[in-house]
Amino acid sequence: MSPHATGRPGVRRSVAAGVPLVVLAALVTACPPASADSASGSAHVVRTATLGEIPLGAFSNTLLPGAVDDDRGIDLGGIGSDICPAGRKGEFWTVTDRGPNGRIKVAGTKRRTFPVPGFDPAIVKIRVAGDTVKVLDAIPITTASGKAVTGLPNQAGRDEAPYSYDAKSALSYNPNGLDTEGIVRAGDGSFWLVDEYGPSLVHVSARGKVLTRYVPKGLNLTGTDYPVVEALPAILLHRKINRGFEGLAQLPGGDLVMALQSPLSLPDTGAGEASRSTRLLRFSPKEKAVTAEYAYRFDPVNVVDPSENDTSELKISSVVAVGGDRLLVEERTDKAARLQLVKLGRGANILGGAYDDDTTSPSLEQLDDPAASGVPVLDKQLVVDLGTVPGVPGKIEGIARVDHDMLVLINDNDFGMTDGAGAFDAQGRLVDSGIETTVTYVRLDQVQPRI
């Protein structure tokens, strides 16, 4: 059902059959450039480009006709969930998350809203041209029968209940739904994505069809229109709501590394909120299995972000392979981010040990000093504090390395959404936040350690 089929793998037609790319290109407007070469200690911004206004309904219905009946005035955004090079200079693959969503408090309880419930997560190919981000192609993520997976939550009692834009009407759960985040492209043209709901690792064909979704053992996700395999550690069932897998990297040998955005809620929510210990997992596409698990320790929140004192605001949003078994790991809040260099040594593997047993007390998440308790926490070295670099936007969720000293950053603008009843006007139209999707090139100066 995908409109992107061609005779050669990895080569696609325009965003929809019969619709030339210039239709979308015409919707992209140029924006003023940021000031270049804003110097700062260890890094500086050399270029910034902005995605212009593309109506979300037009974008979605070009991919899957009839998917969106009312976009409520929302433009395409949210493509900054991750980014990876697409081969040609200035071109990148990006991925949206589950779509526009927010929270509105009703009777003292915050409800999760989905203003455009028909939105389907998409893989979006972009080109940075001057100060403009242009959409070259887009691939809808679909089920085995070619239907939209949507971004709706999967399971009642485990995921947040979905509501309409005004939080007044309950929406249906969808077991096919994906809250996509990290993205890498395999050598055969297929894609690997990670998802927050399961949390899960998702293998997607070059045309966007879900081939397999790998989930934690015991999740018991039924009713999907694609294969689901329980291949991940059961301990992941304790992921914090809306904080599943966020980062994904592919090592030179082909193994994948997934990062949990936040500490697990072990043994309870309070422990997870207070913890600074999260986990990375290594997955072998050849073996179709997790082969290693690593404990990762955040820096104190006020070190990552001097304006923040709430530990629960710490999260990993991106991991980037930099050769061998080395990774850049992004520790962030919504306002600041720091990149750490880690090496995935064999001696750091905790897979299948005591801390994969949810009856272990204290849990990994409860340990004040995991290393002192004998846990082989990954060593890390600070590469750059992006929070100190003028011109870097907030909420960086995607990072790509384009050469030895140049990084490309992309932010998540949340589709211009904000939380609260004021997100939409009296006519149900978006009150836009004004935050744009931007791609920012950052050059590292005299980096120690070198990446």
Structural summary, described in words:
This protein is mainly beta and 451 residues long. The chain has two domains: 1-29 and 53-222, no CATH class; 31-51 and 233-412 and 436-451, no CATH class. It is 5% helix and 33% strand. The strands form five sheets. An eight-stranded mixed β-sheet has the order 2-3-6-7-1-24-23-22. It is globular, with a radius of gyration of 21 Å.
Name the descriptors.
eight-stranded mixed beta sheet; 451 residues; 24 strands; mainly beta; 4 helices; five-stranded mixed beta sheet; single chain; disordered N terminus
SSE blueprint:
Layout: H1 21-25, E1 43-51, H2 56-63, E2 82-85, E3 91-95, E4 102-106, E5 109-113, E6 122-129, E7 132-140, E8 162-163, E9 180-185, E10 191-195, E11 200-204, E12 210-216, E13 228-232, E14 245-250, E15 256-260, H3 269-274, E16 277-284, E17 289-297, H4 301-304, E18 315-321, E19 326-332, E20 337-343, E21 380-385, E22 396-403, E23 406-411, E24 438-444
- Termini distance? 42 Å
Biggest sheet, spatial arrangement of strands: 2-3-6-7-1-24-23-22
Please, what is the oligomeric state? single chain
Element pattern in H and E? HEHEEEEEEEEEEEEEEHEEHEEEEEEE
> Which structural class fits the helix and strand makeup?
mainly beta
- In helices, the fraction of residues equals under 10%
| Percent of residues in beta strands | 25-35%
Using the CA coordinates, give the radius of gyration.
21 Å
